[in-house]
Amino acid sequence: MRRKSINTGWRSLYLEASLNYARSFGNHSISGLLLYQQSQKNYIDCGSMEERVRTSSEISDDIRAILNSYPQIKKFTVTEGGMGMGGSTSVKLEVYGYDFTKTDNIAAQLASKLRDDPAFSEAVVSRDEYTPEYQVDFDRTKLAINGLNSTTAAAAVSAAIKGSVSSFYREDGEEYNIRVRYAPQFRTSITDVENIVVYTPTGASIKVKDLGRVVETSTPPKIERKDRQRLVTVTAYVARGYALSDAVVVANNAISSTAIPSEITVNVAGDIEDQQDTFGDLITLLILIVILVYMVMASQFESLMSPFVIMFSIPFALTGVALGCMITGTAIGVMALIGVIILMGIVVKNGIVLIDYTILLQERGYEVKEAVVTACKSRLRPILMTTLTTVLGMVPMAIGTGEGSEMWRSLGITVAWGLTVSTLVTLIIIPTIYTSFVEAGNRRRARKAARIAAKNA
């Protein structure tokens, strides 16, 4: 690979990027986007969002296109947000199986399908190219005849090839190991390995070819395991414009359309696992918050009906959240759920102000309808003021374009839209529902009083 031509291409393509080259342990390092090409790692500093036109995702896609044009590069990975910073979302397909050939074949098929789908910008298989090696297959019967076992025979072959420390050399207070092994010309080919001499317990010498056979094979440089099973991972990075949930659907379709043997299992993992765990915790927290809010209101109002009416503002706040995310094209993520949790304590505020004043007017002798109308007129201004201050405070977060705005934007959109829709509903639906409940209760009490009077008569 001609490193100079690639670096020149990057300079001409990314005028907004600041490329600072440095040498570190023989690797080529820069900062920002992390690229892997076997032993070489490059970091590219793309600058802040205010100083460039394109996003980091667009620059990453262009770099992938450049690297794909070089046939000398066998494998590469372009990851947004290197050096510990948050990066692009990824979906991992974990292929479990004992047979290397079958798992490699399935992983290659899945990676190819994910690369061809626009929902993914890149797909990488974790298992590297196989390393050629010689394997000695000992015949246990021949070993037993010569008074040997597989352990002692393997140790003798290893000592001949790798060597063994037989003594030490000391000079000027320093101590060096003296390793004894066969010369390179006697341990290179299969014939050389077959001619390695192994000594029996009686002192007789016998060659390896008389104890078994030597075969040339290839093995993966490392074997990944999870839950005590062999594993190969296909990591696919989600392309810009696609949500993680959309990418998971595509990954599941790729798995369904692949002929997978019964002894091989494929699971979807990666960021989706973390997201599901986080969503589960946040939903549990959301349910607890709703229960606690209801309990607090019930203790303050000394009633179960009034807090129940106020809680009707929560579903409409969720409607506003869904509407805002749909209009702005924002995916429901962790920050959006945190915004929903914040809403649970905010949206009931307007209902509390309205219902509390309505109850106060009823205690002063107002009829329920008159009390509701008067309370709405009196509390309209404070409700609108508190809502506007909160919504306007969230607008900069919802429309922000600076550094880190992608993380906080969904929080601002969730709170702003949910609170706006909930306020409109509070001023219309909550008074109506409260009036219906109170009148129904009055009719029920009137019928009960009539039945009691009829019995006494």
Notes on the protein architecture:
The chain is elongated and about 120 Å long. Strand 14 (224-226) and strand 15 form a beta hairpin. The strands form six sheets. Strands 6, 7, 14, 15 and 16 form a five-stranded antiparallel β-sheet that branches. By secondary structure, the protein is α+β, with helices and mostly antiparallel strands. Helix 8 (271-301) packs parallel to helix 11 (334-363), helix 11 runs antiparallel to helix 12 and helix 11 (334-363) runs parallel beside helix 13 (405-456). It contains 13 helices and 16 strands. Mean pLDDT is 79; it is low at 1-6, 8-38 and 82-86. The chain has helices spanning 3-13, 56-68, 100-116, 140-145, 150-161, 190-194, 244-256, 271-301, 305-310, 313-328, 334-363, 368-399, 405-456, and strands at residues 22-24, 27-29, 33-37, 40-44, 77-79, 90-96, 120-125, 131-138, 164-171, 174-180, 197-199, 205-207, 212-219, 224-226, 229-238, 265-270.
What global shape is seen? elongated
Report the sheet with the most strands, covering strand number, pairing sense and barrel closure.
Answer: 5 strands, antiparallel
Mean pLDDT: 79
Compressed to H and E, one letter per element, the order equals HEEEEHEEHEEHHEEHEEEEEHEHHHHHH
Question: In terms of structural class, how would the helical and strand content be classed?
Answer: alpha+beta
**In total, how many beta strands?**
16
Q: Give the termini distance in whole angstroms.
A: 106 Å
Could you list the spans in which at least 5 consecutive residues all have pLDDT below 50?
1-6, 8-38, 82-86
Strand content: 15-25%
Give me the Rg, rounded.
36 Å
Q: Considering DSSP H and I runs of 4 or more, what fraction of the residues is helical?
A: 40-55%
